[in-house]
Amino acid sequence: MNVAIKRPKSRALAAIAPLLQYPRADYAARAAECKGMIELFYPAAGKCMAEFCAAIADKPLTELEELYTRTFDMAPLCTPYITTYLYGEENFERGALMTQLAERYAQSNFDLNGELPDHIAVILEFAPHFSPEELSELIEYCLSSPLEKMCTTLKDAGSMYYFLMKTALAILPGEQLEDCQK
To answer: What ranges in the chain are assigned the alpha helix state H?
Structure first.
């Protein structure tokens, strides 16, 4: 049986990951592919993903790069590091969780591509490597609250990335998707 069918949650989260990284030439195509997969298993989340795809549809790559940088990189609107939402900027527990994540990635020979282990894109990309139990714990203790906070920040700022974060949040267990409107 296809792993994507067997474990759609981890595959859906992993499909979102490249869209939370610096945009490349194939960004819109990846978003459309992600939308198709998510709509298949998570129709409500698919509506948010469709909103994201619509928001990026006519934007040239340079504009997407600028929006990404403004949102997640230089003086970011929304930090992409989950441990800052859990523990704040300077905290021993933040470092401990990042070390645990890095060790788990190393066990699978997973390449962080120069990112910190708590970057949201890295965690989502690694989702298929977690066992179902590990993924459930990660969602409960490390992802739900930071994603909710990211959604609030992005929605308040009127960012198109709100729709992408809302898509990810809608896939997590126990999360109810009200709507994708700003």
So the answer is: 3-6, 8-16, 27-41, 43-56, 61-72, 82-87, 92-107, 120-126, 132-138, 144-157, 161-171
